Amino acid sequence: MIRLLVSAAALFVLTGQAAAQVPDLSALLPAGEGSASGRIIQAIALLTVLSLAPGILIMVTSFTRFVIAFSFLRSGIGLQTTPGNLILISLALFMTFYVMAPTFDKAWEDGIQPLMNNEISEEVAYVRVTTPFREFMLEQVREEDLVLFDDLAAGRVTENEAQTAEEVELRVLIPAFMISELRRGFEIGFLIALPFLVIDMIVATITMSMGMMMLPPTVISLPFKALFFVLIDGWNLLVGSLVRSFF
């Protein structure tokens, strides 16, 4: 009985010490003007944005145009897995960094770096970070797409008023920019696939005239299309044309 009482007393003392060592939640959160609940919401919002970073990269940058053009190129040549998806996506990603470098630098210097140095507030940093991306998207978006999403959103931005980055809402600008990039990507893809289609038609006509009915024309045209693309220095022409299309 005495041992049981001593064990219970020791357990109570250890439990009290452990409870005393639990840190305060406010000490774990960064200092700020808001309450602990507000800072928790800010932390959750930050984690959400970081988890959606790949999607944001696709939505507001030149990545869409690059990856669609490279996909059309692979399909036009007739290669299913060469170059691989990893190679095409990596090339599109680094070309995106190349094209978006001035925008990234401006967003870093005007918004992120002052925020990290506690020189500006989060609201001011948000405006300064998004403004370079707004300007980039406004330069690339089509007026028809911008007006379409403005009408769907029942906004007040018209074709004549949407001239500055501050006047366009992101809910209107981002989807309009995305479908504009999809359209341009398909236009470029058509121009890429057209010469390869001509080669396929020529090879198919020759094989049919020679009576080789059971031989698929793509088997013969594949090396000719690859050779044609190499001889014209296709990667240099394609990547150079894609980069110039943004300037």
TrEMBL record:
<protein>
    <recommendedName>
        <fullName>Flagellar biosynthetic protein FliP</fullName>
    </recommendedName>
</protein>
<keyword id="KW-0969">Cilium</keyword>
<dbReference type="InterPro" id="IPR005838">
    <property type="entry name" value="T3SS_IM_P"/>
</dbReference>
<dbReference type="GO" id="GO:0009306">
    <property type="term" value="P:protein secretion"/>
</dbReference>
<keyword id="KW-1006">Bacterial flagellum protein export</keyword>
<keyword id="KW-0966">Cell projection</keyword>
<feature type="transmembrane region" description="Helical">
    <location>
        <begin position="222"/>
        <end position="243"/>
    </location>
</feature>
<keyword id="KW-1133">Transmembrane helix</keyword>
<dbReference type="GO" id="GO:0009425">
    <property type="term" value="C:bacterial-type flagellum basal body"/>
</dbReference>
<dbReference type="GO" id="GO:0044781">
    <property type="term" value="P:bacterial-type flagellum organization"/>
</dbReference>
<comment type="similarity">
    <text>Belongs to the FliP/MopC/SpaP family.</text>
</comment>
<dbReference type="GO" id="GO:0005886">
    <property type="term" value="C:plasma membrane"/>
</dbReference>
<keyword id="KW-0732">Signal</keyword>
<keyword id="KW-0812">Transmembrane</keyword>
<keyword id="KW-1003">Cell membrane</keyword>
<dbReference type="InterPro" id="IPR005837">
    <property type="entry name" value="FliP"/>
</dbReference>
<feature type="transmembrane region" description="Helical">
    <location>
        <begin position="44"/>
        <end position="73"/>
    </location>
</feature>
<keyword id="KW-0975">Bacterial flagellum</keyword>
<feature type="transmembrane region" description="Helical">
    <location>
        <begin position="188"/>
        <end position="210"/>
    </location>
</feature>
<keyword id="KW-0282">Flagellum</keyword>
<dbReference type="Pfam" id="PF00813">
    <property type="entry name" value="FliP"/>
</dbReference>
<keyword id="KW-1005">Bacterial flagellum biogenesis</keyword>
<comment type="function">
    <text>Plays a role in the flagellum-specific transport system.</text>
</comment>
<keyword id="KW-0472">Membrane</keyword>
<keyword id="KW-0813">Transport</keyword>
<keyword id="KW-0653">Protein transport</keyword>
<feature type="signal peptide">
    <location>
        <begin position="1"/>
        <end position="20"/>
    </location>
</feature>
<feature type="transmembrane region" description="Helical">
    <location>
        <begin position="85"/>
        <end position="104"/>
    </location>
</feature>
